[in-house]
Amino acid sequence: MKMTLMGTGTSHGVPVIACDCDVCKSTDPHNKRFRCSALLEHAGQSFLIDVGPDFRTQALRQNIKRLDAVFITHSHADHLHGIDDLRIFSHKNSTAMMKDSVIRNKYPETDGAGLSVYTSERTKNHIQSSFKYIFVNHDKGGGSPKLNLIAVDSYDASNPLILGKDSKIEVVPVPMLHGNHHTTGFVFSVRDSSEEKHSIVYLTDCHFISDESIQRVKIAGGQIEHLVIDALREREHSSHCNFLQAMEYAGRIGARHSWFTHITHDMGHPQIQDYINEHLGNFPELAEIVQRGGSISPAYDGLILEA
User: Does the reported pTM lie above 0.85?
Assistant: First the structure.
């Protein structure tokens, strides 16, 4: 199982429009951050996590040719407002377009309910109300995505969502808080020949993860190879983890490798690593993981994680 982090920046992205700070003007490619998104690949299948306004560029850069499903963490614009670009993977066309034989042959409508989009019931309702045009028939005009919204709230470590037929991925949602907004993280797991689970945990956009959710991650994850966790900046924030909060959660979760994401332009990539190293001693569990060969670092666009 492989995850490519296609975006690791905050809602503005980095560089920020109209900003002349050192980070935004940096030539270091680690300081060029699209809005948060990730591509999960396993056994010939591809799964997208979040579809923000940078998705078209991310998909072209990553050369995405197919999507088997999409996971949406929450309904904020920087994670959702590229949703219309999913139509190339689902081909829902208007009645008018389907009367044109050339268009009908080139862009056939996808069979079945459409591209599966997994998210919480809250976010599902938001998508249906905010993007109504997607879910109605069109007599005129162009196509729209053909999406099958599926709520994941009922799945847990004892009843994971199963993706794939032969080489399966087990998916467990993780409830979190992002200010007063509810978000969903995900544990993605595969089993080796000994049936041991190896996981990548993706927890973006949160400032509070309950003890119950932490326990869910640990039970569902088995051997957690990678944790990707929201870590906006050094200073505290009302709806995001700062660096120290992210380190505290990372120590409790215990992944071999932990990665900060949703990073703002307050501090450059090397400086964030220096900050982590400086404060690592305050988190004995994390320090022990690092001593055993693990790591904790800021993520960057294009980073590939394997489990």
Answer: yes
